[in-house]
Amino acid sequence: MRLLPRRVAPRPWEEAYRLQGRLWRGVRLDAATRRLLDERPGLASVRWLDAGCGDGKGLVPLAHAIDTTPVGVDASRQGLRLARAAGGEHENADARWVQADVRSLPFDAGAFGVVRAVHILGHLVEADRVQAARELARVVAHDGVLLATEFTVDDFRAGSGEEVEQGTYRRGHGVLTHYFRSGELETLLVDGGLRVESAEEERFAVRYGGVERTRSRVVVVAGRS
Predict the structure, then answer these.
(1) Would you state the pLDDT for residue 15?
(2) Does domain 2-224 have CATH number 3.40.710.10?
(3) In this structure, which of 6, 14, 121, 188 has its CB flanked by the most CB atoms within 10 Å?
(4) Torsional class of 22: left (φ above 0), alpha (ψ -120 to 50), beta (otherwise)
(5) Distance, CA of 26 to CA of 84 (rounded, Å)
(6) How large is the angle between the packed helices 126-139 and 184-191, nearest 10 degrees?
(7) For the segment 168-202, what is each residue's pLDDT rounded down to a tens digit?
(8) Which residues partner with 48 through β-bridges?
(9) How do the domains of the chain map onto residue ranges?
(10) Residue with the larger pLDDT of the pair 115 and 61
């Protein structure tokens, strides 16, 4: 695995990783990615980009699930260090790690058959979400797909923290989370140059502090328009 340094360092995420280490438990492939691979097995042989790979929770198992070497990009160098360490702990998952800003990706247009954007657009303010969506669309191959997952306004955490924009809240170390209204993520991707193929809202129960809570997210698969 290679870590390619770039001069990008978002303070909230660097602080969170510095103080807490890995922010998410486990290293597993999320259900949306697994479902996409099950429905379209040919995608296992194309080039993948995991945008906002963070500490490697999704990228490390992805490296074992596909036949190509995935590229993970994240703005946090500390997060990428943790991801690289996680890869070494899991049978040396073969991946390439790049530090870069999702609003300005260092890749050619159409470079990836699949772009995976799981809970990344929602950590940006509106203007940055628009720019990031355009960049993600730009690097999707002509016959490729983008998989995007974000939390919705029905999620139990929506409304928690300091509201900095409509539907966007700052919590913890200053990390932002935007909760998407119905159809909002699809519109963002279409305006960025993609064509929505499917959109599904999912709800599931989790337990926090011994209390059952509802998480709500939208999963969108989109292709080039």
Answers:
(1) 64
(2) no
(3) 121
(4) beta
(5) 14
(6) 60
(7) 999 877 889 999 999 999 999 999 999 999 999 99
(8) 114
(9) 2-224
(10) 115
